Amino acid sequence: MTHRARLLALVTLLGAAAGYRARATVPAAAPPGATSPATGAGAELAARPRVPGGSRVAARGEPGADRLPALALARDPTLAAPPVATLAGARAAQTPAATTAEALSPAEERNRGAVHRAAAGDTEAAVTLLREAHALAPENDLYARNLQAALINAGFAAIDSAQLEVAVARLQEALALGDRGEIRRGLGHTYYRLGRLDLARTSLEQALQQGAADGETLVTLGRIYLERREQRRALALFEEALAAGAAPPGLAETVARLRRDAETERTYETLASSHFVVKFEGREHAPAARLVANALEDAHRRVGARFAYYPLERLEVVVYPDETFRAVTDSPHWSGGIYDGRIKLPIGGLARGGERLARTLRHEYAHAAIVTLSRGRAPVWLNEGLAQVAEETGDEGRANRVRMALAAGDLIPLAALEGGFTGLDRARASLAYAEAYFAARYLLESRGSYNVRRLLEAMATAESTDAALRQALSLPYEELARLFLAALPRLAG
After folding, report:
1. What integer pLDDT is reported at residue 106 of this predicted model?
2. C-alpha span between 113 and 121 (Å, rounded)
3. Is the CB of residue 286 less than 8 Å from the CB of residue 271?
């Protein structure tokens, strides 16, 4: 869907602005040349902006395998044409005799010039002229409202062209002229795309309170709470979005999963440690929950040191009876755990503790760190590769598999492993995991853990893996693939 900025129409109406579909209004137009503080002259810009869709967020299953898709916000079909500004209520401005009969003030000249620049599609020139008009006559409410509307136009145009920092600047300037729900909503979506989740959440909550939120905004706000691991709040917002008619692919399935989890865990006990909250069924499983909590605290230290990542908020972990784990997660019988915004584990074998449990929890906690840092956008080969490295196990089996593929000229390109391994047969999946492991090791050894963290953070907002690599490591994707292939015989020994 084309994301086109919607220019705010220049009109003169009587009433009050309300919500993102409402027009900003002023009293009836004054006679030409009038510059009274109450009304001024000319015509007013009215806001009907829309916001481009949000970014992807991991929603279920192994990170990257099952996401709530990117959202494309609905557009008002009446606004589908290219931006056009109209001049109304200042008829004398269109009559040469009238304009020459009475000279316009410098401020009104700029205001009317802005109207014509907006009509020509030059929003930035309109903003410049209206800034000057407002500076010359700061007491004139019409100029202030026109400037605010032009800034909103410029802000939404910047969102559509992916100039997100420019969009923030324009919308913040508009907000300084008066609080409006559509400004809060535009800021919220922009902050979300920039990865500034706290600011996005605050702005979208304010838009919601001001009645400027629609179904798409509810979905984006729900995603933020899901990324913050606040499943209950996310579920409430997703349900409200469904009721409002929002239906992006994957939303209904995500709501069903969250409802099922909430019902399954309704009677579970909880045990808290410094950085984790472990939920489990029945007091008889408390010893296993304590083992899990202790092993996770160790994983928090080890994985944190590897990625220089020590989150302050507690991560939720759920320990299920084996059959419940399979039913809730739809995991194969051999799965030792998953991460889908929370770490989920089957109870079987946990009571024995030991190194196997520690490896599993280091692996799953690494997924949690990777998904959080990259906002679920790390390619699967990097996600799975780093999680395997975090296990701290030997690599002989992986090395044998890679050596065989090298000898046969049968390696899988990294770019082919971005979206997951589920479509591969057993042998190819084994090779994919081995390659992912060595690719992650190569990045850590050649660039260092700090730069790998920077790469993950860049992936949170970059348009592609190539863009993130260039931004964080000054390393094009093709060059990474070439260097990794050259280093692989040495890595696999």
Report:
1. 94
2. 13
3. yes
| Among candidate residues 136, 148, 115, the one with its CA nearest the CA of residue 49 | 148
Which residue spans of the chain are classified as CATH 3.30.2010.30?
Answer: 265-369
Residue 5 near residue 159 (C-beta atoms within 8 A) = yes
- Looking only at the bridges linking them, the beta strands covering 66-68 and 57-60 are antiparallel
pLDDT of residue 58: 28
Q: Structure tokens of 183?
A: 């400004």
Tell me the two tokens of residue 453: 């963290």
Class of domain 9-261: mainly alpha
Separation of CA 336 from chain center: 29
CB 30 within 8 A of CB 89: no
363 contacts 388 by C-beta, under 8 angstroms: yes
pLDDT bracket for residue 348 (50, 70, 90): confident
Confidence (pTM): 0.69
What's the CA angle centered on 307, arms 301 and 310, to 5 degrees? 50
CB 444 within 8 A of CB 307: no
Q: Which residue has the tokens 């084996």?
A: 322
pLDDT digit string, tens, across residues 447-466: 999 999 999 999 999 999 99
* 3-state DSSP assignment of residue 379: coil
Per the CB < 8 A criterion, the answer to whether 9 and 48 are in contact is yes
* Length of the chain as a residue count: 493
Both tokens assigned to 160: 């559509």
Q: How far apart are CA 396 and CA 83, in angstroms?
A: 62
265-369 maps to which CATH number?
3.30.2010.30
User: Crossing angle for the helix pair 106-119 and 123-136, nearest 10 degrees?
Assistant: 160
- β partners of residue 270: 279
Q: Which uninterrupted H or E stretch holds 109?
A: helix 106-119
Of 171, 153, 222, 216, nearest in space to 1 by CA: 216
- Residue with more model confidence, 252 or 395: 252
Q: Cα–Cα distance between 478 and 37 in angstroms, integer?
A: 62
Query: Which ranges in 161-285 belong to alpha helices (H)?
Result: 164-175, 181-194, 197-209, 215-227, 231-243, 251-264
